[in-house]
Amino acid sequence: MQQWNAFYELINSPQKRVVILTHQNPDADAIGSSLGWKLYLQKKGHSATVIIPNECSANLRWMPDFAEVITYDQNVQSQAHSKQVIQDAEVICCLDFNALHRIKGLGELALASTATKVLIDHHLEPESFADFVFSDTTKAATAQYVFELIQQLGDASLVDLPMAQCLYAGIMTDTGSFRHGSTTPEVHLAVAELMKTGLQVNDVHRAIFDNNTLSRTRLLGYVLSEKLTVLPEYRTVYMTLSLEELKRFQSEMGDTEGIVNYGLSLENIVMSVLIIERRDEIKLSFRSVSDFSVRDLAHQYFSGGGHKNASGGRTNTSLKATTELLLSVLPEYQNELLSVKK
Ligand code: 5GP
Ligand code: MN
Fold first, then answer.
1. How much distance in Å is there from the Cα of 97 to the middle of ligand 1?
2. Whether pLDDT at 240 is above 90
3. Domains in the chain and their CATH numbers?
4. Angle CA(219)–CA(223)–CA(229) in degrees, nearest 5?
5. What is the pTM of this model?
6. 185 exposed, middle or buried (CB, 10 Å; 0-12, 13-18, 19+)?
7. How much is the pLDDT for 315?
8. In this structure, are strands 236-241 and 228-231 parallel, antiparallel, or unpaired?
9. How far apart are CA 36 and CA 29, in angstroms?
10. Ligand 1 site, CB within 6 A
11. Residues near 288 by beta carbon (within 8 Å), at least 6 away in sequence
12. Cα dihedral: 78, 81, 85, 88 (round 10)
C-alpha cells in the first residue's frame, strides 16, 4: 500500500525525465510494453525515452513512436547518447526483464545511476535492484501489466489507439495469439478495453506475423525439413542452426523467432529445443507444453531461465558440444517427460 501511494505520487508528480529499458533481443512484448508505457508517461507530462540493448526484428518497427527508440549497440554515438540520457534520468523503468545483467552495458549504466528505479515484469525471481517492484508471473505479458497499472492509477481514459496498438502487440505475442495457458479472463478483459480505442486486431496480427521475407520463409522450410530431429523416447524435438546456415539464408535479427514452436505442434511432443550458433555464444530456446517445466533444464545446464513453458539459455562451447550436452541430460527428465499429459 505504501509502495503504491509513493508510486502514484511519482507518476502524478510534475515532469520527470524517464528512461525505459527493456531486454536484449527485444520481442514484441518488450517493445510494445515499453512504448505503451512511454506514451502513457508522456500523457502524464513526463519526458520519456526508450532504449533497447540491441536491434529488434523488422516486423516490430511499425509500432507508434518506434522512430524515437535508441538502439544502444548500434554505434558509438548511440552508446554515448544512451549514457547521457541514463545519467540525466530521474526515473529508470525496467520493463519485461528482471535482472540488470541481462542487458549487459546498459545494465551497468542503470546500476550506476541514482535515479528512482521501477520494475514492471512477469518473469520469475526478480533481482532486487528497483525501488518500485511490480513483478507478477500471473500476468501473461508485461504489456498486460502496464495496461492494468494504468487502470489502477485511474488513467484508463488516457489509453488511446497508439498505446493500444503497442500493448496489444505485446499481449498477443506473449500469449501465442491467446493460446498459451497464460491466457486468463483478465487478458481478454484487457484486450476488450484496448479494442474500444478503435484498435483493429487484424492489422496488428498482420503487421507482426504476415510480413516475412522470402528468405525467412525458406529458412523455416529448411529447418523443418532438414534440421529437425524427433526423439520419441523423450517426447522431445530439437533443431540446430549454424552460423553458416543462417548466413546462407541471409538471416536477419528476429528471423529465428517462433521457429522453436513448430516442434510442439507435432503429436505427442512435449518439449522443443532450438539451438542456434551466434557469433559470440550458442543460444538455446526451450518450449514445452502442459506441466513439463523447461526452466529447470535451462537453468541447471544452460546458464539460463525464463518461464515454465518458455525458457532460454546459452553455452560458450560449440553447436555440436551443446547438442551433445542436451542429449546427455535428457535421461534425467525422461520420466517426467513421459508422464506429461498432452
Ligand atoms: P527465448 O527462447 O525467446 O530467447 O526466451 C524464452 C523466454 O526465456 C523469454 O521469456 C526470455 O525472457 C527467457 N530467457 C531467455 N534467456 C534467458 C536467460 O538467460 N535467463 C533467464 N532468466 N531467462 C531467459
Ligand atoms: Mn514478456
1. 9
2. yes
3. 2-209 (3.90.1640.10), 214-339 (3.10.310.30)
4. 175
5. 0.92
6. exposed
7. 98
8. antiparallel
9. 10
10. 285, 304-307, 310-313
11. 264, 270, 271, 272, 294, 308, 309, 310
12. 160
Asked casually if ipTM beats, i.e. exceeds, 0.85, the reply is yes
C-alpha distances out from residue 206 to 49, 210, 212, 238, Å: 27, 5, 10, 28
**Nearest-angstrom CA–CA distance, 178 and 181:** 8
Cell of 78: 548511440
The x, y and z cell numbers of residue 277, run together, are 550458433
Residue 60 backbone phi and psi in degrees, to 5? -110, -5
Ligand 2 midpoint to CA 129 (Å)? 19
Ligand with the closest atom to the CA of 139: 2
What local confidence, expressed as pLDDT, does residue 228 receive?
A: 98
Nearest one of 320, 268, 319, 325 to 302, comparing CA atoms: 325
- Strand order across the 116-121 sheet: 70-71, 47-52, 17-22, 91-95, 116-121, 132-135
pLDDT at 21: 98
Whole-angstrom distance, CA of residue 331 vs CA of residue 78:
46
Q: What span, in angstroms and rounded, lies between the C-alpha atoms of 74 and 323?
A: 31
pLDDT in tens, 271-330: 999 999 999 999 999 999 999 999 999 999 999 998 899 999 999 999 999 999 999 999
174 CA distance to ligand 2 middle (Å)? 6
Identify which of 33, 253, 311 to mutate to test ligand 1's pocket (most ligand atoms within 8 A of the CB).
Answer: 311
- Write the pLDDT tens digit of every residue in 47-84: 999 999 999 999 999 999 999 999 999 999 999 999 99
Residue carrying C-alpha cell 540446430: 240
What's the CA gap between 56 and 273, in Å, rounded? 22
- Those residues with Cβ within 8 angstroms of residue 224's Cβ, 6 or more apart along the chain or in another chain: 262
Write down the mean pLDDT value for the chain.
Answer: 96
The model's pLDDT over 119-176, given as tens digits with 9 standing for 90+, comes to: 999 998 888 899 999 999 999 999 999 999 999 999 999 999 999 999 999 999 999 9
